[in-house]
Amino acid sequence: MDKPTKDNTENKASLNFLEQIIENDLKTDKHQGKVLTRFPPEPNGYLHIGHAKSICLNFGLAQKYNGKTNLRFDDTNPTKESTEYVDAIKEDVKWLGFQWEEPVMYASDYFEKLYEFAVYLIKKGKAFVCEMSAEEMSKGRGTPQTPGVLSPWRDRSVEENLELFEKMRKGEFKEGAKVLRAKIDMTSPNMHMRDPVMYRIMHAHHHRTGDKWCIYPTYDWAHGQSDYIEGITHSICTLEFEVHRPLYEWFLDNLDITEDRPRQYEFARLNLSYTVMSKRKLLQLVEENHVNGWDDPRMPTVSGMRRRGYTPSAIRAFADRVGVAKRNNVIELSLLEYFIREELNKKASRVMTVLNPVKLIIDNYPDNKSEQLPVKVNPEDPESCYKMVAFSKELYIEREDFMEDPPKKYFRLSPGKEVRLKYAYIIRCDSVEKDDQGNITEIHCTYFPETKSGLPSDKKVKGTLHWVSISHAEEVEVRLYDRLFTEPQPENTEKDFKEFLNPDSLKVVTGYTEPVVIGVRPGKSFQFERLGYFVVDPDSTDEKMVFNRTVTLRDSWAKIEKNNQ
RNA sequence: UGACCGAUGGUGUAACGGUAGCACUGCAGAUUUUGGUUCUGCCUGUCCAGGUUCGAAUCCUGGUCGGUCAACCA
């Protein structure tokens, strides 16, 4: 942790483009040394790993340059937003480990101010009330290649506009009857400059302002002005807003804001392989029950990843490594997995759990005997304490750890071969018993007492297996999660992304494990030895513990097997 | 077909006119009572064509490819 890395000693040389901008602004004293960023979610869905990148970026930049970050809900569309999402978003940001400037901000806090700003523009002749229908307006706007046409209402007098706008606010018009538009340039090659809508009439109940308003500002109108009101210095958003920037600037210009102007910067959003990132598609997965809710451990949502067993620090390290740039990217899932393995390898207690059991009987071990073997809770942790693991004559091992007719390089158990039972003894397989279908029901072995763990012994074996003592084992439910899609980029093919849903993304099995895990609180992570990292799920009850597989261990044997095929 | 943005190994990201580096992945080996971890080594890259320059990933021109933009969504 403390050892200086190249990055730390030479960080000057590896600033991302936003850090360069900020350092330059600091040098030129552009904002009097101030850095104020903001994270501006719309409360209409849950946060996902892409948002996490943005959160780490905005809060991280502020931390690095002694600044602050606002959490601002962009709540300008009452029909889509709710407090359920507000609460979930706050929880996720906090969980990720970030502290916003109190109080939490809302664009809806600025509705009155925004209204005044709009009046200012109307008075300047820079905005007008338009009565075209949505369709007419859409047609009239033209296309990126062809210019739009002027609204017939564009040249109303200032007085008339003022009066109409006030009546809009008072609720004298039906929804959709009128809008307030900025008067810019219908021939601009930038569609966003073709007299964009600033206010629309919506007779809708807002989750915070209730029924006070029936006109609501659009994103473009609300966002930049909210930035200005809060004193945001660097307004960081994703690439698709690049074409909005001229409009962002136009509003500030025409409001005659010359001091303390915020500036918008755009970066490339995060994409992750084997998943989808659009809110719409994630919502679809939830609504069509392809997953069990927003916090399903297969979802790339922050709440899903939390339930999956990902930790805030692993997500932060990931966001940091992924970098910030302006080019489109797809990050390999293996990078995310790398960071959670790295963290859990150091922190997770080890426990032996058998997920696909086959009975192993040690014929020369006394019938009623059992031993308590001392085992280090985490060999990677020098401070780690010891626990006791029960050993007896009848055990479970994994079916995959035994083969009657093994291929070369198979280090596990097979007839006549010897392996070590981890923390216990070396055993030799003598015979197997099968049922009518030829399935192995029992594996009979001999153990060598002099090879007990900790005793000096010359006997060497290639393989070490995990196991549980049947009479001491506890049954738990284990949910084996895998990637949600079978396709690296499910959104980038001609087919519907749902065709690539992985049918094996969840398998539920019964596991046999050590009693030490029973009663542990949800959210606690373990390494099931030789299998992977697992976390206690909130579905756990006194009767049955539930574990989610966060990620498997790296498995070089699986690779060898695969390559042999 | 218009405007804007972008292009460095398989993936992501540095190098700011002077030795193309880092991480992940992959491969090979060492260590190992987890086929884990750790350690060592290796493979693979500047979209193309011109130009400027002693010198170009970097600057200029043209092309190619990719992305974004035509909600009263954000």
Describe this structure as you would to a colleague.
With 565 residues, this protein is an alpha/beta fold. It folds into three domains: 34-267, 3-Layer(aba) Sandwich (Rossmann fold), CATH 3.40.50.620; 279-349 and 476-564, Beta Barrel (Ribosomal Protein L25, Chain P), CATH 2.40.240; 353-466, Beta Barrel (Ribosomal Protein L25, Chain P). It contains 14 helices and 25 strands. Helix 3 crosses helix 12 (312-322) and helix 12 crosses helix 13 (333-347). It is elongated. The protein starts with 5 loop residues before the first helix and ends with a helix. The relative contact order is 0.10. The model is unreliable at 1-12 (pLDDT under 50). The protein binds one RNA strand of 74 nucleotides through helix 6, strand 6, helix 8, helix 13 and strand 19.
Please name the defining characteristics of this protein.
single chain, 565 residues, alpha/beta, Rossmann fold, Ribosomal Protein L25, Chain P, 7-stranded mixed β-sheet, 14 helices, disordered N terminus, RNA-binding
